Amino acid sequence: MFSKRRFRSFRQTFAPLLRPVLEHGGPFRFVAAKVLASRQPDSVEVDGLRFDVHGGDFGVTLELIAAGAYEPGSQQVMLDRLPQGGCFVDVGAHVGLFTLPAARKVGPSGRVFAFEPNPENRALLEANIAQNGMGDIVEVVPCAVGDAAGTAVLHCSAWNTGDHRLLGAPRGRRVVEVEVVRLDEFLGACGCRADMIKIDVQGAEARVIAGLGVPDPLPAMLMEYSPSMVVDAGDDPEVLLQGLVECGWALSMVDEDSGALAPGSVADVVKQCPHHAYVNLLVEGASDA
Description:
The chain is of the alpha/beta class and 289 residues long. Helices cover 38% and strands 23% of the residues. It has one domain (4-285): Vaccinia Virus protein VP39 (Rossmann fold, 3-Layer(aba) Sandwich). The strands form 3 sheets. The protein has an 8-stranded mixed sheet, sandwiched between helices. The chain has a 3-stranded mixed sheet with strand order 6-8-7. The model has no long low-confidence stretch (mean pLDDT 90). The chain has helices at 4-24, 26-39, 60-67, 72-81, 99-106, 119-131, 183-190, 205-210, 227-232, 237-246, 266-272, and strands spanning 43-46, 49-52, 87-91, 111-115, 138-141, 143-145, 150-156, 174-181, 196-199, 220-225, 249-254, 261-264, 279-285. It is built from 11 helices and 13 strands. It starts with a helix and ends with a strand. It is globular, with a radius of gyration of 18 Å.
């Protein structure tokens, strides 16, 4: 059996390499998903919150069940920096594993905006919000987020419910047309300033950040950084990181087991996160780092 730390290390290092096997190996994926669904529950409790999940999922649910939590280090970093009464924006909310802890932290006087364009994920997200009594705090937004408002095609993964993509998706996926919004326009219309933003959009992070502009003051951000997926989306990973630094953000890599932060330069992040791996980054104003 893997320890929790070894499981997360294995997933971060090798999951990108396994994607082609599961993406294109239809018969294998079908059988494996059936076996996985028979072994994984479709409802779990995490830190006092109840979540309905996708039982046959090779991504988020597999990590949640195998490791007992999903990205706990990043969640702790989020909660440490999110004030009561604050505003949290979850871009790529999935089933709410960040949305609901954030809602509990900001409380009734705070606001949470959960962006989830995939209909199946969104149905579970809405069910989880309701069953945990968070409906007065969380607003579910059935849109993707990007650098230009309009519509786009979401390419939906058949094996990993956290790997639906607007950009750079493998061929042959089921597609859904979705609305796209810019964060600066959306938050401006709501009259809100984000205290923290979580961005997990499978390589399209540069587009989300471009649609945020450069707010003053800068919000803290938790961002998944996967160089290979950023490249697949048509962007340069190092340019993405350098742009953040030039706008006044500082970078720290998150240890998912301890929640410890390792501040670093663009070169440090590039060195520690090889092309086919990924890491979650805390991005916050350099004066706050």
